[in-house]
Amino acid sequence: MPATGPGPFSHLECQLPAPRRREGAVLRYSHAWERGRGSPAHILLSLQVQPPHPASIRMLRGHQLPVTCLVISPDDRFIFSASKDGSLIKWEVESGKRLCVVPGGKKGTEERHMGHASHVLCMAISSDGKYLATGDRNKLIMIWDAATCKRLHIFTGHRDAVSGLSFRKGTHQLYSASHDRCVKVWNVAENAYVETLFGHQDVITGLDSLSRECCVTAGGRDGTVRLWKIPEESQLVFYGHQGSIDCIQLINEEHMVSGADDGSLALWGLTKKKPLALARQAHGMQDAQGLQQPYWISAVAALRNSDLLATGSHSASVKLWKCGEGFRKLEPLWDIPLVGFVNSLTFSAAGDFLVAGLGQEHRLGRWWRVKEAKNSICIIPLKRRAAAPSPEAPDSPEAPDSS
Amino acid sequence: MSFEELLQVQSDRRTRVCKQVTGGKKTAKPAKATVKQQQSKKGPLEMSAKKPVPFLRQVVSVTKKVRRDPRFDDLSGEYKPEIFMRTYSFLDNIKKQEKEMIQKQLKKCRNVEQKEKLQQLLNRMIQQEQAQEKQQKLRERELSLKRKQRELAKQGKKPFFLKKSEKRKLELAEKYAELKRSGKLESFLNKKRKRNAIKDKRRLPSQKNL
Hints:
Radius of gyration of chain A: 20 Å
Strand content of chain B: under 5%
Number of strands of chain A: 32
Low-confidence stretches of chain A: 21-42, 392-403
Protein name (chain B): rRNA biogenesis protein RRP36
Function (chain B): Component of the 90S pre-ribosome involved in the maturation of rRNAs. Required for early cleavages of the pre-RNAs in the 40S ribosomal subunit maturation pathway.
Order of helices and strands of chain B: HHEHHHHH
Distance between the termini of chain B: 124 Å
Shape of chain A: globular
Number of strands of chain B: 1
Helix content of chain B: 55-70%
Mean pLDDT of chain B: 84
Distance between the termini of chain A: 36 Å
Structural class of chain B: mainly alpha
Shape of chain B: elongated
Subcellular location (chain B): Nucleus, Nucleolus
Structural class of chain A: mainly beta
Low-confidence stretches of chain B: none
Helix content of chain A: under 10%
Number of helices of chain B: 7
Strand content of chain A: 35-45%
Subunit structure (chain B): Associates with 90S and pre-40S pre-ribosomal particles.
Mean pLDDT of chain A: 86
Keywords (chain B): Coiled coil, Nucleus, Ribonucleoprotein, Ribosome biogenesis, rRNA processing
Oligomer: heterodimer
């Protein structure tokens, strides 16, 4: 990991950000993080996770229109979600209560309304849990204080809808991607714009970053996934998907996973320009009035530094996958039944639960409408089997009993 | 880290190669996809991230449609009438069917104008057929002549080639035979006599010049 000098968190224990570990949680991350690489020798978490009981899935309703994006605070206590009506809700995980609601404004009230007046497409939260950033279709990025939900600042500068946001772990540096095909770097602590990076040929549909000063973007119809090396001002271009790449997430510093609208799921490594593993028609084929096409993958999530992946579509289920050895294979594990468009998926930092943002429509448009679905967020607990520990973990795992 | 320190660290990190690539000097060679091909061909392409993408850009690769004219294309080969007739013989059947269709329509039709048009169309089709048959006969005659020559040559006699005038005489002889068979010889000869008479009359001196 590059040493960046005295940073905002240097008063904390180490330079590498670590998750808040509750008592009795399995020691999972320390080895992989110290090594700084996602090597296959880490704990095979995917084999320990069990399918949840359908009754234990909680559905929290509060949004009027489909939920488009959500983030979990780094301490796994709060969930922030946003939807197509521009509203922002802060939920408490334990009780399921709404702590703060910032309603969305109508079109035309951008000046006076404290909040978004158009679809919110993306969100990000900094790893110290202080700042929340949201981006909408009106080319604005709004910075909120996560604890009080007060708006602190608005970043303007993008020339089209903002479609991807991510904080660099351990800092207050924000990366944003937009439909105007550029990636911008901002410094939230100082409310400053840093630089712009170009290269995509079509709208950018997703962005993600970890603790390196790099981010990955998914390039929609131009069929490329690009890794941006910001200090060197260069990009690495990966090809291999057919169809528009709609979502992307980093698994660890060396691997990422992306989903496209031809139903294919790809696993990428940084040394090869083609995907390491490709699963076609991951959610099957849909039969919409004679037009047979694969279910689009609308959301993809990865449990950081492990081999568990989750994908969401509107095929009435969220599928869980396991990355094979060396990230060269993709094996389906099991499904979680959820009706509606899964517009966003996130694992909690400790891997205890998975949150899905559901809606009646796709987050980017209104191609279909699933009437039976409810615009809500679902908290899915992931129980872990009390299995024998793999050789890496020094402690014996105690399966935490999540509600 | 303050903003100034950030910028400083950033400028320190920029390697010499990157500076060359992103420097934007006009003396440097303008390369589209650049410099760092030190990685193997299987690795991802590394490009500069600072060059803005132009408005007229290629998002999806579009393949140009290759158009070919089969008349002038080498793939079609040389024109050989027998092969052509054999492969496209189905067209004769279609033409026959169309002729029958038009004859039926002609019988049914009441409208005078349309009847005229249909009649013209029918005549055109019949004449095309006749022209085809004529050409076919010509070709057959040529072939038979060639076959005769070949036989003679095989038998050892010297092959002889007819002059054009001789060929025309033979054709005329055949035509007369045909006409005699169908019984139109008299009318044909009368018409010919009239035509020749008119032509000769034009040659004679007129009364004016007397």
